Amino acid sequence: MDVEYSPPRHLQGLPYEVVDRSEILTRKTERDLALRQRSGFHQLILCTEGEGYHDVDFEQVRFRPGGLLRIHPGQVQRFTPEPRFEAQMVVWPTASHHRAPDAPAWYPGCDVPSFWQLDDELHRRVAGWIGELRSEQNAFVSSANQRALLQSVLATLLLRLEVELPSATPTTSRLPTAYVAYRQAIETHLYERRSVIDLAADLGYSTRTLDRACQRVSGLTARQVLDERLALEARRLLTHTSRPAMRIGEDLGFTDPANFSRFVKRHLGQTPGEVRRTS
Question: Taken in order 243, 244, 250, 253, is the CA torsion positive or negative?
């Protein structure tokens, strides 16, 4: 199911919300917890006590104190109530998001890390930064100046994390320009079933140039990069919505249901129905 940013009524107007994981769990029904949810907002989860798991894009993340998880809009997640762990969560809408000037580009399937196990010192510091956000949230009186202040505090947290946390991939400025443009074009036209030839023409590159750029970064051809991204989107839609597989195929630009079924089988190893039942 799709979930949009919706803070409690008394926090309306805030550019973010800091909340304990245990409180989030009380807001959700057992049915909600059993479903995969696709969020339309950004999230940080910092484990403070206990150990447990959180499912993001079909991978289980194991938490213990100091574990920090970054979830991006569009990713599919599922809460795992047991075993229980406590965490501080920061959630904010895309309108409040501040991207660092040279932050690594994030897209599904990239190698930019989204989970870190912080050492004790950095865990203490990150918890303190999140505590600053919570303090400002508790003092919020819904003035324009205070909203601007809170927006600044959130941006400072995100910049601090970019400085402190290791990145496994080159910064945006060091990635091939053709590759960055191609990945952006894939996201823009994901539901239009565009071919590599179409995207290359739109971008003003040859398909050979896109192949070279993709292979340099990922070891995959441009077609493989496109198909891998499309397969992830198909899996997301099959597991977080109840729409018939035929309609999902149409949403993704497949005019023939049989072609969509063959695509899913080839890239996910199962039929659409099997993906829905087992993921």
Answer: positive
pTM over the 0.85 mark: yes
- Distance between CA atoms of residues 186 and 210, nearest Å: 12
Coil, strand, or helix at residue 54? strand
Nearest-angstrom CA–CA distance, 83 and 104 = 33
At 126-174, the pLDDT tens digits run 999 999 999 999 998 878 898 899 999 999 999 999 889 877 555 666 7
Q: How far apart are CA 261 and CA 187, in angstroms?
A: 22
CB-CB contact of 16 with 149 (8 Å): no
pLDDT, tens digit, for every residue of 33-61? 778 999 899 999 999 999 999 999 999 99
What letter does residue 204 receive in the DSSP assignment? T
Q: What is the domain extent for residue 263?
A: 175-278
Residue 199 confidence (pLDDT): 97
Same structural domain for residues 133 and 185? no
Q: Look at residues 87, 91, 116 and name the one whose alpha carbon lies nearest to residue 18.
A: 91
Domain stop point among 137, 164, 191: 164
Split into its structural domains, the chain has a count of 2
- Other Cβ atoms within 10 Å of 188 Cβ, number: 12
CATH code where residue 187 lies: 1.10.10.60
With CA atoms as reference, report the closest residue to 183 among 145, 143, 146, 229.
229
